[in-house]
Amino acid sequence: MTSYTPVKLAFNTVEPDGCEKDKAPIIFLHGITASKEYWNEIPKNLANATKRKVYAIDSRNHGDSEWSEVFNFDCNVDDFLHFMDQIGVSKAILIGHSMGGITALKTALRAQSLTRLSDLQIQLKPTPDGRFEYKSNVTSLLETLKNSADLMLEPTGVYDKPTCFIYGELSPFRVKDAEEHIKTLFPNSKLVGIENAMHTVHNDCPQDFTEAVIKFILDQ
Predict the structure, then answer these.
(1) What is the per-residue pLDDT across 121-130, written as a single tens digit (0 to 9) for each?
(2) Which tens digits make up the pLDDT trace of 110-148?
(3) Which residues are within 8 A (CB) of 92 and not within 5 positions of it... i.e. 6 or more apart?
(4) Are 44 and 28 in contact (CB under 8 A)?
(5) What torsion, rounded to 10 degrees, do the Cα atoms 36, 38, 41, 46 define?
(6) Is the pTM above the cut of 0.90?
(7) Which end of the chain has fewer CB atoms surrounding its CB within 10 Å, N or C?
């Protein structure tokens, strides 16, 4: 397996009143055109409901994290495991959307110690002259997408801890149709469909999404 030099990841944190610091934190991983701000109020709501510390990170080439010419889902996993080492966390609950979901999936299969909850909005930042530009390393992302065969190898391994795949029933990505394959990699998984939601479940139906995640966490 190829290893990559990790980059420093930017992140936001939410620590609720009465935070139970002995519990594994929750970590949010965004999609390919998003950033750590993408989740809006969901991290705060989950922190308050579960009394866990919550992190929302920027992946490499996104937001305020370091930019690199190297970009694929496997280096995202290396970055993420390095981030966990930096914050002194050995176990976490991962919540990922799209690219972030793949990073969470591959991290769980590699590390075997994480709970993953799965789920394209363009992120902009102001420039000194008052204009706005993409808050992502667009050049690197576009180059990677042109060579999409190199973006991700087929996941391998088995992760047998509780896992929840939350999907929009109106999404063009037919998660339910892949249930048999999902179960070969994640035998202790369940699928939760959100009515009236498309690919961005947490944006389309934030309350339903949040309630599904809270239920999953509290049921464990």
Answers:
(1) 223 333 344 3
(2) 877 555 444 422 233 333 443 333 343 444 444 544 444
(3) 24, 25, 26, 27, 84, 114, 115
(4) no
(5) -60
(6) no
(7) N
